[in-house]
Write a structure and sequence with these properties.
365 residues, single chain, seven-stranded mixed sheet, elongated, Rossmann fold, Beta-Lactamase, alpha/beta
Amino acid sequence: MTEASRRANREELAESVRARLVERRRAAAARGEGGETDLAGEVRALVDRDVALLGPADREAVVAGVLRETVGLGPLEELLADPEVEEVMVNGPGRVYVERRGRLEAAATGFGGEEELRNAIERILAPLGRRVDELSPMVDARLADGSRVNAVIPPLAVDGPALSIRRFGVRRPGPGELVETGTLSAEQRDALRRAVSERRSVLVSGGTGSGKTTLLNALSSFIDPGERVVTIEDAAELRLQQPHVVRLESRTAGVEGRGEVTIRDLLRNALRMRPDRIVIGEVRGVEALDLLTALNTGHDGALSTVHASSARDAVARIETLALMAGVGLPHEAIAAQARRGIDVVVHLERGADGRRRVTEVVGAG
């Protein structure tokens, strides 16, 4: 028997055992015997009884397969176990893609159907206290390791549930490692070290997946350890090494439509927390006006990112976002605040080879 056929046989046996496990648990629940049980032990006992002819290694593989499909993420488990996978994208049950070293590729795996994919999404969201259903068909959440999860289900997702998991490791590369990988040149690193040390406000710009958050985290290492730093993010991805850091994370509205806390709310509150530095994961809305106001009223040395196609466009985008606040300020006044408040713009691009590189380091004024 070939390895491929052995694997297919194990998967078939795992599905059979899982079906029996579900039947047993439903029957137990009907008898009022539900509750906490040793799931792994129960699965192992079923496997030992029903597929005893298999060798020990194959039996353990079947046990792992049953547990993966019951409480894990099914076919995504193997992908997420690969440290080179940066992002997993599921475009319906049968189409799974991954990003490795900055490049997208199709994965040789998939879900058996929409129900299996929906179950995997629910298993991801349940420990986070979030849910996705017909009333709330979109959800954005953060896993315990900092990875970001986004899910969209029908009717909004036309071809079946869509899921993306953007992974963030516990450790982030520092400035020296970014120089080694070619993201930064030594001259750019030294220039940015001086800018951050001299409390100049730095804005990192680039497209999706260009490495903005990674660079922002690296730049934060240049902040004096004696300073009080307040970080503000939609999803807490930054891993600052300073001893005096306060991490704030926004919150979406609940099912009842209440409880939302925006980046703008957090930024306004952060100004009352006696920060030496404010680090905003990304400016993407009307909080841009509050940031410019802070930068022009003594809160210098801030660090943040913004989506833009060039350094010049980054400043223009900040101005546009600030104008969306609708306070009636003329564009000339907003532009003047941007020129005075933002000192340095660093622009990143991701090449066709998947590598991220800093292409511009310019003064915003």
